[in-house]
Design goal:
By secondary structure, this protein is α/β, with parallel strands linked by helices. The protein has helices at about 5, 10-30, 55-65, 80-85, 100-110, 135-145, 190-215, and strands at about 30-35, 45-50, 70-75, 90-95, 115-120, 145-155, 170-175. The protein is about 40% helix and about 15% strand. Helix 6 packs across helix 7 (about 190-215). The longest helix has 26 residues, at about 190-215.
């Protein structure tokens, strides 16, 4: 399956997006990146990111060692942001339905050896991986790509309280990359039961990484 048949985004666009992310994130905040060496230098990988600030996606685009194609809610693709986000290799997804176009394009990214970024909680919230959607398990099991957990921890991080949409400008933001792992059980099964079991395994690994990142950074 080629890029032409999947409609997957151009790696060059994601590379441009990474350059923009580097400029903006390091210009407006003070990222501290930990464990970036854990991201495989090549081959498909899924970055599973907690989501508590509006800058989490751009922050990861600017701090990850490889260009990232994020699945982003379609509501963000409005006005001039629509061609811009498409141009920098991001993927529009309708969260209210099984968006076959987005699924095909995301799988195309992985099939071509790219990096797919996912907020497994589905929307911005406490950023604690407490509620995972099944999409992450599906992409991991279907593609065979490893999942690599990422914790983005801003200076306004407060559990149990409403989290600000943006950390204060020029504040430190910690981006902690974890160990990659396989989501499947090795059987290759893609049944509903297999995906549910994979989701439980994924949630355990992501939560453990986030807890460890918080202890390490003091956030």
């Amino acid at each position: 399956m080629t890029r032409a048949t999947t409609g997957s985004p151009s790696p060059r666009g994601a590379a441009v997006g990474r350059g923009i992310g580097i400029g903006l994130m390091y210009g407006l905040w003070k990222p501290r990146v930990l464990g970036a060496w854990r991201v495989p230098a090549s081959g498909p990988v899924i970055l599973a990111v907690n989501h508590s600030h509006n800058i989490d996606g751009p922050m990861l685009m600017g701090t990850a060692p490889r260009p990232v194609h994020f699945l982003i809610k379609k509501e963000a693709f409005v006005g001039p942001l629509d061609p811009f986000l498409h141009g920098i290799g991001q993927l529009k997804v309708d969260r209210t339905t099984a968006d076959r176009t987005a699924i095909t394009r995301a799988l195309g990214v992985l099939e071509e050896g790219g990096v797919l970024g996912i907020f497994p909680e589905g929307t911005r919230g406490e950023g604690d991986f407490a509620s995972l959607r099944a999409g992450l398990a599906y992409f991991a099991v279907r593609s065979g790509a490893p999942i690599l957990p990422v914790a983005v921890l801003g200076s306004t991080e407060r559990r149990g309280r409403l989290i600000s949409a943006l950390p204060p400008l020029r504040s430190r933001v910690d981006v902690v990359f974890g160990e990659a792992f396989a989501a499947g059980d090795g059987s290759g099964r893609r049944t509903r039961k297999a995906l549910d079991e994979a989701t439980v395994r994924i949630q355990t690994r992501l939560t453990a990484h986030l807890d460890g990142a918080r202890r390490f950074t003091g956030r």
